[in-house]
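Case 354 in the screening queue. Each case pairs one protein sequence with one candidate compound; here the compound is coenzyme A. For every case the pipeline is the same: read the inputs, emit a complex structure as tokens, and attach any notable structural observations.

Predict complex for case 354.
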Amino acid sequence: MRYCGVGTAVTAAGADSSVPSGIVRAVGMTGVGSHVPSRVLTNHDLERIVATTNEWIVSRTGMRERRIAAEHEATSDLAVVAGRRALEAAGVKPADLDMIVVATITPDYPFPNTACLVQRQLGADRAFCMGLEAACSGFLYGMETARCYIAAGAAQTALVIGAEKMSAVLDWTDRSTCVLFGDGAGAAVLRPVPAGRRGIISSVFGSDGSLSDLLMIPAGGSRRPATAETVAAREHCLRMRGREVFRYAVTHMAEAGLAALHKAGLSISDIRWVIPHQANLRIIAAIGERLHCPASRFIVNVEKYGNTSAASIGLALDEAVRDGRIREGDLVLMVAFGAGFTWGATVMEWTGRA
Ligand code: COA
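Case 354 output:
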């Protein structure tokens, strides 16, 4: 039997094996990867599905197209491709992984958790695997979970993936939601960073379960298991009160961003790039105003992918690293908000393989 955990993972492999278990150490991202399905669904395509227009979608959301997974593709399939790319970028083999976290609200199955399915496809047989459900905040929640394990010495090398097949839970007759979401995956490898590097500098998180009804899938869980009636009423699909969600998304992402900066002892002028959850261009613009940060310092790809929920921040981060916008030493602020409600912000020095 192979076990990872306190006292074993730290000595398992890697750069920092001299650090004894229980010692808090700096953790950073050493590689990122992402993946989107090849099928593009444009706003014009949507005009043929629901009563909407390209103009409405662009002006209210900034979205022009999104990616839709094939019928046979599940969330774990998207996650595995993104995960492999992150491992390659980090120079880490699947067998070196101690821990896999997959954040998703569209798991392949209610159980087993999607991280176990990713482990199987990657052949990461030393890793322990967990699913994490924090909706669109999932990537940041997953990062923080892995960071805590590594900082505490309970793991050395973690793969964190945010992956979604949102198209599987959309009501394709509801124009107020089906135009907003897309499928994809973003991944990162987390490890201790060398002395002198900061990696993840600060994080803050919050939740408000009293507002859970504003954005949810009402049926299919233990409270309302699937029946012919729930299926006929499309209650296994995402429901959202968009205008209210909009307001809370702006407030919480902006406040979390400021709190994470404060915790890090930094100001917005120290930050090279802000990566917001890609829910809506107008939400991103409103966050920019509240953070006093110009649009030129935001990483935005919502026009290409729509809202990919837990995948969104990892996907945007990977694109910006690969096209050279984010460089070694850059300070990056990531802000997220999602169903629950859940929200959070993380300040990170991009280290890459350094
Ligand atoms: N095409 C055309 N018209 C549409 C439409 C569509 N796809 N979707 C909604 N409308 C209509 C509504 O029916 C409404 O019509 P009415 O005034 O006749 O009732 C009108 O547009 C305005 O709807 P409203 O919901 O007030 O629009 P909005 O400006 O708030 O934009 C969202 C709607 C969903 C884009 C916006 O509220 C939003 O982005 N919310 C947050 C979503 C989000 O981030 N969710 C995930 C959080 S992680």
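Case 354 observations:
- Residues 4 and 98 are 6 Å apart (CA to CA).
- The chain has two domains: 4-192, 200-349.
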